[in-house]
Amino acid sequence: MPYTAEISRTNPTSIIFLVDQSTSMSDPIGGEVPQQKADVVADAINRLLTELSVKCAKEEGVRDYFHVAVVGYGATVGSAFAGSLGGRDIVPLSEVADNPARVDERSKKVPDGAGGLVETSVSFPLWMDPVAHGGTPMNRALQYAESLVSGWTERYPASFPPIVINLTDGESTDGDPTAAAEAITSHATADGAALLFNLHVSAAGGTPTAFPDTADGLPDSYARTLFSMSSPLPSHMRSYAASQGQRVSETTRGFVYNADITTVVQFLDIGTRATELR
Amino acid sequence: MSVRSPTAPQPQFPSGAAYAEALQHTQLCFRHPELKGARPDLTKLGLPRAISGAFASVFSLTSATSGQRYAVKCFTRYVPDQERRYQAISARLARLDRAELSQPWNLGFEYLPDAISVGQQRYPVLKMEWIEAVTLSSWLDDNHADRFAVDRLADRFAALTRDLSQHEIAHGDLQHGNLLVAGDDTLRLVDYDGMYVPDLAGLGGTERGHRNYQSPLRGNDDFGVELDRFSAWVIFMSLKAIATDPTLWNRLHQPSGEFLLLTEEDFSSPGGSTGLQTLLAHPDQLVSGLADRVRSLAFQPLELLPPLSDTIPKQRTAPTVTTTSPGPAAAPAGGAGGLPGWMTGHVPSPARPTSTATVSTSPDGFRGRTALDVATALLWPLLLAMTGVLLMAGLPMPTAVAGAPVAAALLLTAFARSRRVERAQARAALAGLTQQLGRLDEPVKAAEKLRKEKEKFEATESERSAAHPKEQDKLTARYHAELKEAEQRKVRKQREIDKKIGKLAEDLSKALLKALTDKQNAYVRDRLGRRLIADSPPHGIGPTLAARLAAVGIRSAADFTGYRTVQNNSFNSTGAVLVISNGRLVNVTGIGEAKAIGLDVWRRDVVASAVARQPKALGTAERQQIEQGITRRRAQLTDQRSALEPATEALRVQARKKLEDGRSRLTQKHTLAGQEAARQRQEFSQRAVTLKQNRAIHESLSASVEAARMSLRRLAYAHYVRFIYVGR
Q1: Can you tell me the ipTM of this complex?
Q2: pLDDT tens digit string along B236-294?
Q3: A158 neighbourhood in chain B, CB within 8 Å
Q4: Which stretches are annotated as coiled coil (chain A) (predicted)?
Q5: Cβ separation of A123 and B138 shorter than 8 Å?
Q6: Residue B222 pLDDT level (bands cut at 50, 70, 90)
Q7: B188 has which bridge partners?
Q8: How many degrees, rounded to 5, is the angle at CA A55 between CA A50 and CA A61?
């Protein structure tokens, strides 16, 4: 059965984030406090990298169950890592964990134990900065990811297949991305074809369409294209999504349209959920 | 569509990172006096350092008040009946008398409900004593070469499992990460999440345990005292094997591999597994016997598995360094029929996939002299002496006879050697191994074949990928051409119609003019017809002539149009013929040139007077009829013109549909090809993985073949001669 490979240091998997950095990413996204979409996406990925580092931490340190790439696309297409990892593509998680660009102090209100709230500051490691400049060369980004995926499946033929997560807010400006998307999912390890999930971040503030199993009811051809590009969720991710209160079916796809802040975070959590880490 | 699923989702727990963030302020997140303000161990980045598992993250916290160090377990997943489980486990473990245990393996813990505040909520933690110890796998990394220490640890492990089963406790997830080795080389058992104690009987299991340690038959719901049996055998066998042959650690254990010597595949499909085959083929019978035991146990239901502790002698501190059977486990504990303890209770297992284990050889060289060997040994000096005597007697005889005793001795030795079972065994072993090796594809060749196939596939695949946009472009180009053609056709037709419409005004005036002319001509013709020659004859035409004219059909001015002068041959004079209406010429007797001129002048006067009176314009009705005709024509043309646009649009729609159909056919084709490529690549990956495994099996088998050859060499003639005297 596909998508059941155990993720281990000898059989790690790779997670490749494709981050839309087009000009429109500077538009605000709905929420309690309005934020730019680029900020929300960068925050979500930074948070997820911390999350993965903690999840893979063992006695001796962070284990390389995952190798991570963060690719930005806008004015250019390439590594979106800042700081000492700048310019790198797929980086082992242990190296990611130790090398954020910087650690910010962010203020946060926490319960003071006496029924009130007290403002404290928490350390927040950052690996990528928000960027919003240029077009949406989604085709090039997908082709970039394909070369990473192809190299990975060659190197780790037994591993859980690579997961590509595309976070975008607009239509591709360099042509129909369908063929490039299919090229990604045509690569496979012994455990199955590479996975491509798409997250559409919206400024519209409508109800998000999360993990649909049909293109019916999607508002336009752009949404339908993104839907058709998205891989069905493997069974363990489906179960996890269901345990998170998502409505899922056998043919549910890794796609969210019109995502708000909460859905962005939840989507990344579900889309990077591992089978079993050993 | 973020609608809640019909079944209520499980309660949500914070993630490991959320706990790590909360633990940046232990003063705020804890209420417990020992933990409030405790100092966490930090990572390089200065954040609380976690050790994470599937259900929880553990943090090391040093109490600000007591200075005591704790391991605090924070749960990231909901576990049903969690508090009840921990309370029951805690109570059961608290009743154990540490003095009675083989070693102080249990560790104290306290379940604290609502202990930590994360976000707006409070969650439980497990506060555990911190122990200084290393995991079994990292201990083996450092100590596998110390056979004594490893063997002692194997026995301590067996003793630990005895402690557990004596108290009807099962850990549920015995593995290299949950067994720690303390500084004094005694074991500590950690992570009690999935532990079974009798008070929890009836509840389900919370986990299935590490897959590289579990029986293929362990199910999700198994939860009872027998949970650890299979993993206990796996661990014990691995430790004993390493103690016997420390090289096994480097041969079968991968650096950072999540297993000791064997993995899940070894248990589920022993035939294709490198690890199990290597152990089964091991020359040491303790190793191969234990491996065979594990192999057969993998096919038995958990409740039928014999506890490790029942079959292992109770106290063993002496090192187990000898490599010959029956070995240290031969104590009669539970044994029957003099079999080694670990061989008892052996349940018939599925047929062996290969015969590796049976053809394994041990020990090397000849062992145990038979009567024939002894006789041969005794015969040699006897026959040599006989030869000496014969030679010394100085009797003349052929050398052949003198050499006969020696030859007899040589022959007898050869015969005696051929009777030794070791040679047959060694040959069989070598043959068996060689045969097995032959069955395996040569890894280098197979890899080359795979590489070539892959290369070919990737080439066609990249051609296909490149062809796809071209085919798309072709469709688009055809679409554009069709649009262009439709547009051109429309414009051409429009121009034609516009030209016709533009000419309508001219057509009208022409039609009007023609109608007037026709009307005038008709008037004149009518007038001419009414002027009869007989009624008002022209000058010089009398009744006779008029009658003659009437005889040829000329009665009125309308009946002729003129005359022609003719030369009369007979009289050499000029005469005339008349031109009648149909253009024919008639000769009328009595009408000469002068009469003809007269007639013509008469006719001209009639014409002139008719023309002078002819109508000068069309009547209103006539005119309107003509104008209406033109208006109808204009309407027809305008209709034709406006029909052009919808017709063209229909062509456009048709072309668009053709394009879309073509595109969707192409996309479908591409998608199918992509899926096929994924399937093909998956197969390549599978072959690459198998190849890697085969390479290891191949190496291992090749080594065994080499070893078998060596041992066959040790059975050579000279070795036999030494053996019959020396005994080895």
Answers
A1: 0.92
A2: 999 999 999 999 998 888 887 889 999 888 888 877 777 888 888 888 888 989 999 99
A3: 685, 688-689, 692
A4: none
A5: no
A6: confident
A7: B180
A8: 85
Quick one: tokens of B319? 């090192």
pLDDT in tens, A45-97: 999 999 999 999 988 899 999 999 999 999 999 999 999 999 999 999 999 99
Question: CB-CB: which of B7, B50, B670 is closest to A57?
Answer: B50
- Between A204 and A205, the more confident residue is A204
Name every residue whose Cβ is closer than 8 Å to that of residue A192 and which is 6 or more positions away in sequence: A2, A3, A161, A234, B678, B682
C-alpha span between B79 and B10 (Å, rounded): 9
**Which H helix or E strand runs over A7?**
none
- Tell me the pLDDT tens digit for each residue of B433-452: 888 778 777 788 888 999 99
Q: B383 is written with which tokens?
A: 């026959």
Question: Among all chains, which residue has been given the structure tokens 């019959």?
Answer: B724
Q: How confident is the model at residue A274 (pLDDT cuts 50, 70, 90)?
A: confident
Calpha distance B300→B283 (Å, rounded): 26
Chain B segment 9-38 residues within 8 A of A by beta carbon are 9-10, 12, 15-17, 19-22, 24-25, 28-29, 31
* CB-CB neighbors (< 8 A) of B253 in chain A: none
Backbone angles phi, psi at B365, to 5 degrees: 80, -175
Distance (Å, rounded) from C-alpha A260 to C-alpha A209? 10
- Amino acid at site B400: A
Chain centroid to CA B170: how far? 39
What would the CATH number be for the domain defined by B133-323?
1.10.510.10
**HSE-CB for A215 with a 13 A CA cutoff:** 11
The residue type found at B622 is: E
**In chain B, what are the helix, strand and coil shares in percent, each to the nearest 5?**
55, 10, 35
- Topology of the domain covering B16-129: Phosphorylase Kinase; domain 1 (3.30.200)
Which tokens is B56 given? 């929880």
Residue B419: is its pLDDT beyond 70?
yes
Alpha helices in B575-716 (DSSP H): 593-613, 620-713
Right CATH for A13-106+122-271 from 3.40.50.410, 3.30.470.20, 3.50.50.60, 3.30.565.10: 3.40.50.410
